[in-house]
Amino acid sequence: MGDFLDKVSDFVLTLVDRGGALTTLLRYVFPVLVLIILIRCAISLLGFRKEPEIWGHIAFEDGSRLPVTHWENIIGRNRSSDIRMNFENIYKQHAVLTRYDDGSWTIGDVGGRGGVAVNGQIINGLTEIGFGDLISLNGLEVTLVPISKEEAEYVASCRTNPKHLVSPALTLILLTVFQFLTVVQLMIGCDEEYWGSITSSFLLVSLIMWGLFVFNKVMHRSGFEVETIAFLLCTMGLSVIASVVPEELLKTVISIILGIVIFMVIGFCMRELETAKKLRYIAAALGPVLLLAVLVFGMDPALTNGARGWIKIGPMTIQPSELVKISFVFAGASTMDRLMTRRNLFLFIVYSGLCCGILALCNDFGSALVFFVAFVVIAYLRSGDFATISLICAGTGFAGMLALKLKPHAAARFSTWRHVWEDPLVGGFQQTRALMCIAAGGLFGLGAGNGKLKYIFAADSDIAFATVCEEWGLIVGICCVLAVLCIAMFAVRSASLGRSSFYTIAACAAMGMLVFQMALNVFGTIDFLPFTGVTFPFLSNGGSSMMSAWGLLAFVKAADTRQNASFATKVPANAKRRSRG
Questions:
Q1: DSSP helix/strand/coil, 134
Q2: Rounded to two decimals, what is the model's pTM?
Q3: CA angle 279, 280, 282 (to 5 degrees)
Q4: Whole-angstrom distance between the N-terminal and C-terminal Cα of the chain?
């Protein structure tokens, strides 16, 4: 064993001695690998055929049928209705037909106009129905009927033999090769005293990645593209930390592990809609409590660059606002039967105002902006009312301008915006250095560990994008942006096939947070937007941010209805019947 370790050590030292030539080669290899990994994931996520699931049919008296393709369906005359009935006696939004985990169904009258009857009885609120019941929609009589035996067999075959455009295992092998070469490059560019921690950190993350992949296989799930992109970004984040603050590698690996645990827990909670609906109340209550704890017990803003966003617990510091993002998404999600029978955003507006108000009092305006964007996404998806959303945005803009007057810390950052070169030694110090280093990196970078930006404050967090661009090149930096956008486009594309609005709203809100957070980090770094100090998801150093990003990713997995793709999607055929009190 000793001889083997000596040979490995000699091999590494040989690589370091020839580091200049190897770095030059790897500078061109890395962008190619990243592009191949990203393209393969994008093909699977964005290239799948949108084949809706069929859960039943609406049968008319003349024998014609309309398929029921969601668990929650709006019946109406509107073109946007899930089950469109273009008859004069049907309202634009007439009724809500809902399927539950246990296979039972209900129907509700939108607006309580008395236009829905079941077996001759006018309904009041949600009423349980079964296959064969006669439903009257303002005199138009229809029946809910089950899918045929042939359709059921086809759906079962799709679940057993899902079609994938590319092999997720091969993509993961390419990512593993990328991780190995990253370790080699970091050994060339970093001090020898950190070689052990660099190697062990990347090895542990790689083992975790493959362990999660094997778990998916054991669960008979084959979709792993979302996780692959997340691990790609985590790999880039580890490389940034290894270059800037290698002593924090272990903390980052622990954060990744905890984030994956949160990802798995939320995924399993979302497997059953009724469980997720109950959990949202607990999560909603927990959010303001955590934020109030920051307001009371938060660290002195003088120690945290102006914001009271962190709580110190022994040797650790946590940022509760990052974890509250998960609670906020849970609180905002809702099912269609509640949305259509009680279209009232008042409680959620109050809840959002409370969260954003506490963050403003903590001087954490970057997080407040992220929460507000998530609120706008949720509010629009819940109401579809542009006028209401515009009024809320106008009011929030007024409150923001008032906050800038009252909070000099935030106003100072806005005063520097678009003027960083006028004050390159104080207000614009980080951004001017970031811009110069991005330019120095060019398309292919200087090599991991070879950059100069690592000597600037927050090179591993607030301006991590610039560190990636300097050491890995602009191509890899742009790929990191495209990786987040790829998941976001997948979430939007999956929305039209979502079984429940709960999953759709949660996935879109979660990705709205991550995309806007990324935009603030990237555009703030290059002075296109005010510099807010918000982290780049998965990439920036920060344990709370890493755990939050993985937690938000679970909502995207729950919205993935591709056949047999997501462990967070439970096949409901064998679900037990339960009551809905």
A1: strand
A2: 0.88
A3: 65
A4: 64
